[in-house]
Specification:
Number of domains: 2
CATH topology of the largest domain: Rossmann fold
Strand content: 15-25%
Order of helices and strands: EEHEHHEEEHEEHHEEHEEH
Distance between the termini: 34 Å
Largest sheet: 8 strands, mixed
CATH superfamily of the largest domain: HAD superfamily/HAD-like
Bound molecules: magnesium ion
Length: 272
């Protein structure tokens, strides 16, 4: 397990002891499924000048591009410090300066049989908990992301104000997860985003992605900080607690900015 700290005691983070800072995306760097805001982008670009940065989420790479990368006006020279891990690390993407493109390596995708089993489990869970698809949805409510299947109550593209009111206490999704678990042994099931449940093969979760990242860069867990907004039990950041990094629980992007600004101030003090 690793230390879990909140904004109150972020002074425990010693800049010179860190090689990499990893972030969740939705609710941590940006509002759920919404663009990265300019203030966060500006702070992240400063952070990229000092540390390796990784962003890990259940989102697809296409979602990362529209939500995150297109809103990060980052010099190409700094992109070498940035790693993107879509589908909780089922993919690892890095910028290739030779081709000027992002290159992703991907795990083995779900088989058709596995996909069918997951869809049937969702249909069963919907009946068990009494979930009825809303009359208006915004994109598919079950999305195939190759190494991950994601449920979103109103669809992936639903406006944030609709999403926010659906399950703020996670009660609906906790009941759905409880109904899914006995039907899907051998799979990981996690609550994510504002209305989502992510399903991957067992062992594919944020801990898996973060370990893959540490191996890629030959970094020990003690030299990583992980920042996420769902580090509570059954939250999709909770597996990160098993990696051995220092985990920082935030309430939203505003708190993440405070954590990062504090880190930058501490770094400048170190150099004085
Ligand atoms: Mg989140």
């Amino acid at each position: 397990m690793c230390a879990l700290i909140s904004l109150k005691n972020i002074a425990q983070i010693v800049p010179k002891n860190i090689d990499i800072i990893a972030f969740d995306l939705d609710g941590t760097l940006a509002p759920s499924k919404s663009p990265l805001q300019p203030e966060m982008a500006a702070v992240l670009i400063k952070i990229l000048q000092h540390w390796k940065v990784a962003v890990i989420s259940g989102a697809s790479f296409a979602q990362f591009q529209s939500q995150f990368l297109h809103n990060l006006p980052c010099p190409i020279s700094l992109l070498a410090n940035l790693s993107i891990l879509p589908t909780d690390g089922g993919e690892l993407c890095r910028y290739d300066a030779h081709t000027n493109k992002w290159q992703c390596t991907q795990d083995q995708p779900f088989t058709d049989e596995e996909k069918q089993k997951i869809r049937e489990a969702f249909a069963h869970a919907f009946t068990t908990v009494g979930f009825v698809q809303p009359p208006t949805t915004y994109g598919p409510i079950i999305e195939d992301r190759s190494t991950q299947i994601t449920f979103s109550a109103y669809g992936m593209e639903a406006p944030l104000d609709i999403k926010k009111t659906w399950d703020p206490e996670h009660r609906k999704r906790s009941a759905m997860v409880a109904a899914l678990k006995p039907l899907l042994p051998g799979f990981s099931i996690h609550i994510g985003g504002a209305t989502s449940i992510d399903i991957t093969r067992a062992g594919i979760d944020k801990a898996y992605g973060l370990r893959k990242l540490l191996t890629t860069f030959s970094i020990t867990p003690q030299r990583m900080v992980y920042v996420g907004d769902e580090l509570f039990p059954d939250g999709n950041d909770a597996p990160a607690l098993t990696v051995g990094a220092l985990c920082v629980a935030v309430q939203g992007p505003e708190e993440t900015i405070q954590v990062l600004k504090n880190l930058l101030v501490a770094t400048n003090l170190e150099h004085m």
